[in-house]
Design goal:
The protein is mainly α. Helix content is about 65%, strand content about 5%. It has 3 domains: about 80 residues, Phosphatidylinositol 3-kinase Catalytic Subunit, Chain A, domain 1 (Ubiquitin-like (UB roll), Roll); about 120 residues, no CATH class; about 110 residues, no CATH class. A hairpin with a 4-residue loop joins strand 1 and strand 2.
Length: about 450
């Protein structure tokens, strides 16, 4: 250590420097120049830093390099004081394994067993709703399940919200089934009668969710979602009762459903009371955070239920149109799938975007399957086509894009959406026979 300097190598989080540091200056006074030289990166002034030797010995801030016996050629680590420079040594394998298992938090405990039993029971109850049985057995079982679902959802809403949600889902499904069964004698025969019975079932499920909503707010998304489904199904059934063809009715309902996606945010804000709070604040009324938090939770529940319902209805309508095996309904279904993917950009929360992305992807897959099964020459190559499409999709999604590129893509998508809307409306005119009626 000649003179008053020590020639050392300082290793920081961002870079490594060979430096000559004063030997008699306290380490605390050496840290600011080291941080200013960029060794710590962007967050150099956001944490407490210290110097450590390669063997993990911490250099006391009040002591100098000479006091710490730092020699020429030594390596010093500059790091956050809360970080460990060297990993802890393993002294006992058994103790280390036990510590790792405990810290991972994945052990099967009694609570895990109860959760598993709850999920199995919920799956069994839901699956039983689709199992054929005697009318009396179905009615009695359905009534018991509906009553139990309401009571359980009220009782477990705070302590076990998952159990409450599963109970609500099972209750809604069984209310749908028993109403569908009970309305058999009052509904006409054929497809229209079957759709009418399912519409009755949807409204019965809404009624049960309204009763459950009295005891727990967890029933709100179920109520909204089922109400959306029933509200869409009702005019479809009425139109078909008056003689409207299935393809035209479903096509119009699909287009209107896709168009309604853009209205969901404002409708949810109005139903949840957010607009009313805004008016109160503008009028000078004091609004506390708990009230606003409750309204935002209600807004999210309304929006989530409506999104899931619209995504489900749109996917079902696409399946119906593709099953017709005709050109124009198939093109309308394809346009709806693309519209679901593009309109998902209205939202930014994952739980709001994902249902539309999934519905759009399923719709495109249904259209592709219908095209292949219709006798396409590519049917023998269907596995290869599916794999190729998946790889292309992943490749396009993985390409990094800058902010400018994202803005350009958004402008292109907006233009495509306008053309897509115009095309869907034109196809609706063809499906409904409007052009033939005016002599085109």
């Amino acid at each position: 250590m000649p003179g008053q300097y020590s020639s050392v190598t300082v290793v920081g989080p961002e870079s490594t420097r060979d430096m000559a540091l004063p030997s008699g200056v306290p380490v605390a006074e050496l840290l600011p120049p080291l941080l200013n030289r960029g060794l710590a990166g962007r967050d150099g002034h956001a944490a407490s830093w210290e110097l450590t030797t390669v063997d993990g010995t911490r250099l006391h801030p009040a002591r100098s390099l000479a006091d710490a016996a730092v020699r020429d050629g030594d390596v010093l680590h500059l790091h956050d004081a809360t970080d460990a420079v060297l990993p802890a040594a393993v002294e006992d394998v058994r103790d280390s394994v036990e510590d790792h298992v405990e810290s991972a938090g994945h052990r099967w405990r009694a609570g895990t067993g109860r959760l598993y039993a709850t999920i199995v029971a919920a799956v069994a109850v839901v699956a039983a709703a689709f199992v054929p049985g005697a009318d009396l057995a179905v009615l009695l079982t359905g009534g018991l399940v509906c009553l139990s679902a309401t009571v359980v959802s009220w009782w477990s809403a705070d302590q076990a919200p998952l159990l409450s949600r599963l109970s609500l889902a099972a209750g809604a499904l069984w209310a749908w089934r028993i109403t569908h069964l009970a309305s058999e004698s009052i509904a006409p025969d054929g497809l229209v009668g079957e759709l009418l019975r399912h519409t009755y079932g949807a409204w019965a499920a809404v009624a049960l969710m309204l009763v459950s909503l009295v005891g727990t707010p967890l029933a709100l998304p179920f109520t909204v979602g089922l109400a959306v489904v029933a509200s869409i199904a009702t005019p479809v059934v009425i139109a078909m009762q008056f003689g409207a063809p299935l393809t035209a009715t479903v096509g119009i309902a699909l287009v209107l459903t896709v168009f309604a996606i853009g209205l969901l945010p404002r409708a949810a804000m109005g139903l949840s009371g957010l607009f009313g709070v805004d008016r109160d604040i503008q009028a000078g009324e004091e609004v506390r955070e708990p009230r606003l938090a409750a309204i935002l939770a209600r807004l999210d529940a309304v929006l989530t239920g409506a999104i899931l319902a619209i995504a489900t209805v749109a996917t079902t309508a696409v399946l119906v149109l593709v099953s017709r095996g005709e050109l124009w309904p198939g093109l309308l279904a394809l346009g709806a799938g693309l519209a679901l993917l593009s309109r998902s950009r209205v939202f930014d929360q994952t739980r709001h975007v994902a249902p539309f992305r999934v519905a759009g992807t399923l719709s495109l897959a249904i259209c592709a399957a219908g095209w292949l099964l219709a006798g396409s020459v590519l049917l023998p190559w269907a596995p290869a086509v599916a794999v190729l499409a998946a790889l292309v999709y992943v490749g396009l999604a993985s390409v990094p894009r800058s902010t400018v590129a994202n803005a350009s893509a958004a402008r292109i998508i907006r233009v495509v959406e306008i053309l897509l809307v115009a095309g869907m409306i034109a196809i609706c005119g063809q499906i409904t026979g409007l052009y033939a009626a005016v002599g085109w």
